């Protein structure tokens, strides 16, 4: 099954699987009817093949790629396995975040990990920051109307839908009309040979202005193959600290406040020297700041612009905020998961991993590497465009395992497996135990040259090539 899924991904870029080996068995890997092991293994294998193509472009040497399906599935919740200085890294969510019963037997989900989204939900509900008060308020609300009210207040969440309800929604139709991933030439520039180096992405500069999980995973994956990644954040923006440890491997991290003219000019200076610009803001958000794909391609001809959104660039929800769990909620995934694997309490259930987020990040990295290869051969500026909803649809489209098999799957990997898949990195916060890169490559084994660091740890400058 991973081979079939992989071929579908590679066909988008006109690539072939070559010598790829999948080990570690098959789905179900964890208790879910969805083929998350296949999804993780196929998207990771695609990154390995894209990196191998760049190595071939550099050296004329081919290499084998291998992926363990179970290890790939573990990578879809890699933050779950972090320890810093032998202490678990907290993955606690905000206390009011979650799924609640609404009127008429419906369910509502509110995403409140960020303070601004929490404030929006509480404002709409008219209650204090208390889970019981939130539950009472939602119980008296129409789920569809509450969904629209929270979005209008610039919050995040959604009404729980079935797959059939979602398929009848105009946004589902808009997403169905899109490919899984788009790699589009948006400007002309001369071919740029890959910089010298002994790794597939040696000398490639990646500017990472994404947040949360999918986008940062893309940049982390590019760092695995030798890219110089500079993450840009700002001191006034909220962050999810534990996830920064998870997605920070291999990166430099600096702060710029784009509300100031000085820091905006500094960002443009970094862009002029970058090869890849990766962003995850809602469609139109950065364009309003003069940072659209076309604007940056004019500033830096040959730039690879990687753009992530929640619900795609077309349809009535194109500008809507969203996260992995929101996409699961509105598209029928949580409904189906609960039908097959009921929770301890009634109601919708999420995947046991963040499959949409991580697979999206891997596909973003795949697209960026394909675009870099095209730039080296034919030149041009390129746009790589993807959404969480497109990836969610793709995962569902991989089909399901039998319900009995899903229910019998263990909820956790063995201690021996996790020990084999883990490594320890020395960081400013102390020894960080975390999962190692999954993809195995014969000539250029993926690894991170830099450890995770606190946000803003470095100056906003590129290292020398």
Automatic annotation (TrEMBL):
It comes from the Bacteria. One of its GO terms (molecular function) is catalytic activity. It holds the Pfam family CoA_transf_3. InterPro entries: CoA-transferase_III, CoA-Trfase_fam_III, CoA-Trfase_III_dom3_sf, CoA-Trfase_III_dom_1_sf. PANTHER family: BLR3030 PROTEIN, SUCCINYL-COA--D-CITRAMALATE COA-TRANSFERASE. This is Carnitine dehydratase. The lineage of its organism: Bacteria, Pseudomonadati, Pseudomonadota, Alphaproteobacteria, Acetobacterales.
């Amino acid at each position: 099954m991973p081979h079939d899924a992989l071929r579908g991904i590679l066909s988008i870029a006109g690539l072939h699987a070559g010598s790829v080996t999948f080990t570690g068995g098959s789905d179900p890997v964890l208790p879910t009817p969805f083929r998350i092991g296949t999804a993780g293994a196929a998207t990771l294998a695609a990154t390995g093949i894209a990196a191998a193509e760049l190595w071939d472009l550099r050296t004329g040497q081919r290499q084998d790629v291998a992926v363990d399906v179970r290890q790939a599935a573990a990578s879809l919740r890699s933050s779950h396995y972090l320890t810093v200085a032998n202490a678990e890294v907290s993955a606690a969510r905000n206390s009011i975040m979650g799924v609640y019963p609404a009127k008429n037997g419906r369910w509502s989900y509110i995403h409140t990990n960020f303070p601004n989204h929490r404030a929006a939900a509480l404002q709409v509900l008219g209650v204090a920051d208390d889970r019981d008060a939130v539950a009472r308020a939602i119980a008296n609300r129409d789920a569809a109307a509450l969904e629209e009210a929270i979005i209008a207040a610039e919050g995040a969440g959604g009404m729980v839908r079935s797959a059939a309800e979602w398929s009848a929604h105009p946004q589902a139709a808009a997403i169905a009309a899109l490919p899984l991933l788009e790699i589009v030439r948006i400007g002309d520039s001369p071919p740029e040979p890959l910089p010298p180096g002994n790794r597939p992405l040696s000398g490639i500069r990646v500017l990472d202005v994404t947040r949360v999980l999918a986008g940062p995973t893309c940049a982390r994956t590019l760092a695995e193959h030798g890219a110089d990644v500079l993450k840009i954040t700002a001191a006034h923006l909220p962050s999810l600290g534990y996830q920064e440890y998870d997605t920070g491997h291999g990166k430099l991290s600096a702060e710029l406040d784009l509300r100031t003219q000085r820091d905006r000019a500094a960002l443009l200076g970094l862009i002029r020297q970058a090869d890849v610009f990766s962003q995850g803001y809602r469609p139109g958000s950065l364009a309003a700041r003069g940072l659209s794909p076309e604007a940056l391609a004019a500033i830096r001809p040959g730039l690879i612009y990687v753009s992530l959104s929640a619900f795609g660039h077309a349809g009535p929800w194109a500008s809507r905020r969203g996260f992995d769990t929101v996409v699961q909620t509105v598209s029928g995934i949580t409904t189906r998961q609960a039908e097959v694997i009921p929770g301890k309490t009634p109601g919708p259930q999420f995947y046991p991993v963040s499959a949409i987020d991580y697979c999206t990040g891997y596909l973003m990295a795949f697209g960026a590497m394909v675009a870099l290869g095209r730039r080296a051969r034919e030149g041009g500026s390129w746009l790589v465009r993807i959404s969480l909803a497109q990836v969610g649809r793709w995962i569902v489209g991989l089909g399901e395992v039998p319900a009995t098999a899903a229910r019998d799957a263990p909820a956790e990997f063995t201690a021996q497996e996790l020990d084999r898949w883990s490594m320890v990195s020395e960081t400013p916060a102390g020894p960080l135990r975390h999962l190692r890169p999954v993809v195995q490559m014969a000539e250029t084994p993926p690894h991170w040259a830099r450890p995770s660091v606190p946000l803003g740890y470095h100056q906003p400058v590129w290292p020398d090539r």
